[in-house]
Amino acid sequence: MVELKFIHLLLSNGDPEIDKKSPRMFCQAFASVPTPIGPAEIAFVKSKVTERLKEFPLTVRSNVMNVVPAIAVLPGREPALKNYTGAAIEELINGMTLNPSNPLTNALGPTFMSVAPPLLTCEDELIWLDLGSPSYHKPVYNSCSDAEPTPDKCLQTLLDQSFRQALSIADQQTLVNELEKDTQQTHLSCVTPEKLPNLIEYNPTIAIEILMRMLKTRHIDAYLDVIVEMELSLHSMEVVNRLTTSVDLPVHFVHLYIVNSIGTCSTIRDKYMQNRLVRLVCVFLQSLIRNKIIDVKQLYIEIETFCIEFSRIREAAALYRLLKQLELDQGTVAGSSGTATGSAQSQKEP
């Protein structure tokens, strides 16, 4: 009964200080309330064991009990085990019969062998293949180099590569040419919104080409939402800037991207990264304002507050001067138009 309760305590993690107690303390605690052991208690503990085993890997659960079954010897025949000789059989028997009374080691698991990785031949020395960053060591098969490559296979392969690595200028031009030939846009279905952030970071030029083709589809809102939610970077601002100067993007998207960019600059703790992003955002906003992409009146308070917060940065000060210059020009135009109207009215009066 003491053993049963002790096993139940281990399975249920009922005592966090179990490692501080001696066996005598457990015997005294459990033996004070004697309870007969019945089939229900045994079945309960077995169910608990089954639940805990599900938490272990399949290799651990695949172990076999180290119990050697008795060999039936037929009359006039030698034991069958004698037909199996060799070092492997002896090692197996020794492993199965080692500590047969210990419940913690009363199992025989498969032996997993791993071969040492080969060395890479380099110019100066032999180095090991570093798998600390597996994303940099993904093998990519270039089907475009086949003896008879097909345009569809080449386009699909370059698209797959563009999600994982930066393409060369030649590959980018090839991919753009293939996209122009794909009038039905059948291959754009593999560019899902989840893959768009990687495409923007690795190949912003390709991302611009693909987004330009998706602007007329009904799925463009999902891609624009991903751009707003992704981490602020130079490439993401480059993509948005190119799109705003080429096509008419939804006004709410541009405004939301600007507000999120300004908010991101305020939350960064690293001063170096903060100053870098502030400069990028200021240059980005100046480009939008000078090209008349956005109406400054609708975002004047947000941009002015941003400039004042980071006034120590030269680009922010320049953006603030641009805002004040626009405010002055608009006030002058309004004033001159009002004066001209008044003069015209006075001339009409007798």
From TrEMBL:
GO biological process: regulatory ncRNA-mediated gene silencing
Pfam families: CNOT11 (PF10155)
Keywords of the record: Cytoplasm, Nucleus, RNA-mediated gene silencing, Transcription, Transcription regulation
Alphabetized InterPro entries for the sequence: CNOT11
The keyword Ion transport is assigned to this record: no
GO cellular component, one term: nucleus
Subcellular location: Cytoplasm; Nucleus
Location (main, coarse): cytoplasm
Top-level taxon of the source organism: Eukaryota
Annotated PANTHER family: CCR4-NOT TRANSCRIPTION COMPLEX SUBUNIT 11
Sequence similarity: Belongs to the CNOT11 family.
Name assigned to this protein: CCR4-NOT transcription complex subunit 11
Species whose genome carries this gene: Anopheles culicifacies
